[in-house]
Amino acid sequence: MALVEARDLVKRFGSLTAVDGISFAVERGEVVGFLGPNGAGKSTAMRIISGFLEPTSGEAWIDGHNSHGEPIAARRRLGYLPEGAPAYADMSVGAFLSFIAAMHGLTKPQANERLAELIERVHLAEVWNQRIDSLSKGFKRRVGIAQALVHDPDVLILDEPTDGLDPNQKYEMRALIRAIAPHKAIVISTHILEEVEAVCGRVIIIARGRILADATPAALLALAPEAGSLAVTIATGEPQRAIDAISKEPNVAAVAVAERLNGATRLVVQPGQGRPSATALAGALGRADIAADEIYLRRPTLDDVFRQITTER
Amino acid sequence: MRPLLLVFRREWAGYFATPVAAVFLIVFLALNAGLTFLVSGFFERGQADLSSFFFWHPWLYLVLMPAIAMRLWAEERRSGTIELLMTLPVEPWQIVVGKWLAAWAFAGLALILTMPAWITVNVLGSPDNGVILASYLGSWLMAGAFLALSAAISGLTKSQVLAFIGATAVSFLFVMAGFDLVISAVRGWAPAIVIDTVRSMSFLNHFQHITDGVLELPSIVFFVSLIVFCLWLNVRVIEVTKAA
Fold first, then answer.
1. CA–CA distance, A75 with B117 (Å, rounded to integer)
2. Number of domains composing chain B
3. Residues of B with Cβ-Cβ distance to A84 under 8 angstroms
4. Domain spanning A4-222 has what CATH number?
5. What is the pTM of this model?
6. CA distance linking residue A156 with residue A172, whole number of Å
């Protein structure tokens, strides 16, 4: 059995169905990104798997232990960062993490050894004796990560682990997740698509409580409508002659106006069987005596795929 | 048992993490002394006992015990830490009991700080110290019942204010259960056994039995049973509301 397994999870709050039949499995060594618009059901699904919420129907297992049938055994193997990284505001960082470690059943020496390692990894040394309510958002989030890692669990469920971090901190957090990933099964939720590309080997896109896609980031990018297309910017507001010129080139399937800029126009060139080279397009424009400001291969983004998938159905 | 003690220690320290604890203790001691010496006329009575001191405890606890217990669960809900706490590999009852014990110990501390009153009567005369000790223990036990009741109600809301108001309202019913104010609400329609049951729930009557030194055992059993029931209810409240 996979380290994390969810089968047909359904959660209704009154007439609202927050999670509507979600199933997936995560193996050791996998980092799965939960992606979805706000209110898509990401946090609700994570709460069910962690055992905090009771599902209306369906079941979840952590390392073979049912989240609700054997909650204690399941939670021993789980590190969980709830949404918003809650922590006891009136405790110091050190006291809080020691408390969580002891609640996980670590002895004093075990906890001290583990915490010494985490201080290094998550960079908490300078705030160790500070009260949690005096911490910046970034430090608070790191305390939340440290509390999830304190018992070295096989399974990590992290709800928005980089929310509120500055770019450097985000970079470090992603490096940390990548470093521990080979030994664990990790599920993270995020709004940030670049993060998915940076750390996740697999993406699950959720909207309105359902899974719309479950694939590698590369496979998702290939779904983008602009995959392989080129953008051509010309210094004129009258693009018709340019469109005619480019259309005659081999391997060009279609040319369309993407955007009208200040006295310039951006065209999108869809490839046919092969892809036309930028040099060929520049040559065609040159023969028609049209100046090309820039020609580049459009790199499809997960943003585009995400928008397409979450709005079309 | 270790998680229970850990939760107890955390909550106990939580009371002293802010000046609230000091303020609470001062208010409790000042009210207690004011009511005993000024309103009840401790010195004018000319008797070396503490009955005028214990007389006020149910009324003081009616407001002060909900104030001690209101944050126990409401604050966990408001700050979201309940999600952290309830996903730790710990049985919920250990958390419930640990929290209640911390509140009860805090109430015990408040009672211990009233010891000067005990010393005073011993200096002024020769009171029956057995009765006073029993009254102290009875008062602490009653405080435990108020706290268990208030903690269970705190589990229903994320607002400490609502937790306080709800706990005070319910506690008021228990304090007044033997009086016409409450009895008349059920007398019209309920069978005699219900009326008797309601009457038997009165905190005032049970506490009086303990401080008078008569019929102590049934009253002790009553308070202990009520505490156990409320703690069980607290566990159920936490388990049911987290599912919703």
1. 50
2. 1
3. 80
4. 3.40.50.300
5. 0.86
6. 17
